[in-house]
Amino acid sequence: MTNKHYLSLLIGGAIALAGCSTPPAPVESTPTPAASGGGSTIAVGHGAPAASAPAGDSAPPAASAAGDGPGNAGGIKWTAPKNWSLGPERSMRAATYLIPAAGGDAEGGECAVFFFGPGQGGGVQANIDRWIGQFEQPDGSSSTDKAKQNREVINGLAVTTVDLTGTFAGGGPMMGGDGGKKTGYRMLGAIVEGPQGAVFFKLTGPVATVGAAQNDFRALLKSLGS
Questions:
Q1: Rounded to whole angstroms, how far apart are CA atoms 203 and 27?
Q2: Quick check: 86 and 63 in contact, CB under 8 A?
Q3: CA-CA distance, 134 to 147, in Å (whole number)?
Q4: Closest listed residue to residue 100, CA positions, set 113, 87, 114
Q5: Which domain holds residue 110?
Q6: Mapping DSSP to helix (H, G, I), strand (E, B) and coil, where does residue 216 land?
Q7: How far is CA 168 from the centre of its chain?
Q8: What is the mean pLDDT of each run of 10 residues along the chain (226 residues)?
């Protein structure tokens, strides 16, 4: 075989190999849609446009019926009335119960439950006095003199209660209010000395609404147990 013939064979083989190897087709990437705000969507009313929650936040849970499910905090348990609704979670609260408005009242009431941990939250009487101090009397008299206080034992737990009517001035942001004074309000409060610390129950609302919920509040206290 001559050198010229051998060279022709090499070139022909290379051309054949090149024709058989097809380069891979380029892979097209599909762009991922950008997240719209990075948060959850909250439905606003019926037929209203949805609003996006801030990035990292989730929509608060809607209120649901309290039913017979027991609440618990500080080593104690209780059962909320069936006609109360369990409200959205709030900072510093173990639970928030929403109470329907009585006839003639423009708004309902709420029962806030607080537990701050063992040894936290201050003394019982100091908190009772602070709650009383959140009320003013229309005639300028002392709210301390008008407040009805009682101390009892319920199912082995020491419970201090307070009942007061007047102008409520303690509905600031920590209480979920706008800080404005509310006339014609009533408070039913109870501080329960649980095995892990004090648990605070504070029901506030218009006089008629709280009056209608008085027996329910008492039933809640009677359901206390450790």
A1: 65
A2: yes
A3: 12
A4: 87
A5: 76-222
A6: helix
A7: 23
A8: 43 40 39 34 30 33 51 95 94 94 95 90 93 96 98 98 95 59 96 96 98 98 95
Residue 153 lies in a domain: yes
* Per-residue tokens: 180: 């404005």
Instruction: For residue range 76-91, list pLDDT tens digits in order.
Output: 999 999 999 999 998 8
What are φ and ψ of residue 133, in 5° steps? -65, -10
List C-alpha distances in Å: 151 to 80, 122, 187: 21, 17, 16
Longest dimension (CA), the chain: 127
pLDDT score recorded for residue 98: 97
Q: Alpha helix locations (H) across 70-181? A: 124-133, 143-146
CATH value at residue 146: 3.40.1000
In a domain, 163, yes or no: yes
Task: With respect to residue 27, please indicate whether it lies within any of the assigned structural domains.
Answer: no
Q: What is the pTM of this model?
A: 0.69
